[in-house]
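Renewal narrative, Specific Aim 1. Our central claim is that a sequence can be written position by position from structural information alone. The example that follows is taken directly from our test logs and has not been curated for this report. It begins with the structure tokens describing the chain, in the order in which they were read.
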């Protein structure tokens, strides 16, 4: 599944449309959870489509619109990845169906990926105004290679007035298969503090332990 969800927005938009349109149309024969699709996936898709449509017009694009687009994708992408995982593991969905949706075909003899046991180490780079780049690697590693069986890093973050008491306060979610991941902010958010934590997720959407929470000031 690692390469099913593209990093670049135009390709992401094309792929998500194909997957969700097909899944919605085939919800009954594929025995998909219609309540989850209608209450979670499709509203997140609609929010992404609206935000990305606004962002694509360079004449009206602003930092606020860019942040709205990034926020919509951060909220939508984990749901889309979960949908891809559901479809990949659904025996009613054929390999031809997966090809139609540009979902990588499951291996017939794949060894199950282990549940991640380590945590990502990460640094928060604030060299660019209104941007934080999250550079991550495996615990104790000098390489940026991910642990065996890991698909990517789940990222939780929030801009808060005080250090969080626990991770539940980090209400924004993102996912990245390759370091670094960037967060963009508005001019009004400069000088505030963003708090971040990460955990590994394997190719079966199983997750490892969270890292410690780190914070940095938005430049």
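The sequence written for that structure reads:
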């Amino acid at each position: 599944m690692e390469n099913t969800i593209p990093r670049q927005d135009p390709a992401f938009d094309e792929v998500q449309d194909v997957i969700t349109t097909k899944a919605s149309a085939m919800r009954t024969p594929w025995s998909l959870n219609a309540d989850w699709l209608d209450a979670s996936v499709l509203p997140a898709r609609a929010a992404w489509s609206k935000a990305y449509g606004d962002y694509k017009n360079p004449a009206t694009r602003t930092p606020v619109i860019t942040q709205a687009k990034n926020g919509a994708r951060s909220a939508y992408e984990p749901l889309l990845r979960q949908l891809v995982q559901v479809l990949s593991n659904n025996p009613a969905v054929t390999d031809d169906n997966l090809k139609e949706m540009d979902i990588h075909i499951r291996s017939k003899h794949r060894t199950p990926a282990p549940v991640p046991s380590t945590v990502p180490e990460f640094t928060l780079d604030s060299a660019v105004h209104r941007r934080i780049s999250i550079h991550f690697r495996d615990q104790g590693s000098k390489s940026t290679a991910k642990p065996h069986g890991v698909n990517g890093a789940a990222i939780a973050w929030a801009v808060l007035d005080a250090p969080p008491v626990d991770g539940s306060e980090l209400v924004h979610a993102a996912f990245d298969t390759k370091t670094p991941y960037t967060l963009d902010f508005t001019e009004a958010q400069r000088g505030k503090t963003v708090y971040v934590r990460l955990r590994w997720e394997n190719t079966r959407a199983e997750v490892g332990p969270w890292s410690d929470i780190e914070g940095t000031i938005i430049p």
